[in-house]
Amino acid sequence: MRAGRATVSSSQLATLFGFTDAQVRKDLAYFGHFGHPGIGYRCDELIAEIRRILGTDRQWTVTMVGVGNMGRALLRYKGFSAQGFRIVAAFDRDPRVIGSQIEGIPVFDIAQLGDIVRQQHIQLGMITVPAADAQQAADQLVAAGITGIVNFAPVALSLPEHVGLVGVDLTTELEQLAFSVANRTRSR
Amino acid sequence: MRAGRATVSSSQLATLFGFTDAQVRKDLAYFGHFGHPGIGYRCDELIAEIRRILGTDRQWTVTMVGVGNMGRALLRYKGFSAQGFRIVAAFDRDPRVIGSQIEGIPVFDIAQLGDIVRQQHIQLGMITVPAADAQQAADQLVAAGITGIVNFAPVALSLPEHVGLVGVDLTTELEQLAFSVANRTRSR
Predict the structure, then answer these.
(1) Helix residue ranges, H only, chain B
(2) A186: in domain
(3) pTM for this structure?
(4) ipTM score
């Protein structure tokens, strides 16, 4: 779209992503019939379909629990809002930050988490507290009715089955790189 | 190991990770023969083998290009050194941070990147500059002989084939979560 093109073929997508044509077609076909014979994919249709598949065709309200270094960095990260993730509240237990705003996002006492998540119908939570506090933060989010959690704390969380969970271990990214370098292969 | 156990079976690992026994055995068998019939895996052997496979059985020297919010958060992240990733130098072009130290790591002028990476035999680079500056930072790292890059900037980098690349797009983590919530499945 940015390049001013209206359509794209599976082989062009394959070249861009380093897959085979067949893999691109097979992966997309898993979700429905998007292509047009002899044309390929219409870019606007394909983007809309992928956004629908990913669930980024809507606004999600998000909260951040923990506004230490990682939390602050994420609050300042512009990519979230561009994809429809609106961070509406942050929580911490440090009295020096409670009551402040970071990038316009109010920081509340973590003791208020349940009330505010319920009042504001917050759907997703990001956990950036220290590992020792992460399970408690997750339990509070779940009790308040959150439907999904991204966990940046380096610890495995135990959550009920109905709550979505994505764990982000930043060390894993460096391990992937070390693996690719140590094995002289290209990981991506 | 932390739980004081000397051995672990593939079915115990499978339960921990949410895979099947067969998948655990098949995945590990891809890299060699680690198990002992009737015993399972010896924890110390398995950890050593996995560290060898990942390339985390050695020390890696790492540099960080860009010490804005994300760079600072990563410099303060303790998980890297625990896995053998030693950040020895950081670079920025902002005169207010050049010459300072963050968590004991010196911040140099990005103009010195080539010299310092060569002198200190730095192996891996993390890029946390804005998207518009990321390719230039990558080119400087590659010219200085770096063997792998973790890219946190939300842009695709073009690198020579011999350089390892891992891209981290934080928005992708939220998209994964939105997908799992929107589709009522558990992504992990």
Answers:
(1) 10-17, 21-29, 43-54, 69-75, 79-82, 113-119, 131-143, 170-182
(2) no
(3) 0.71
(4) 0.72
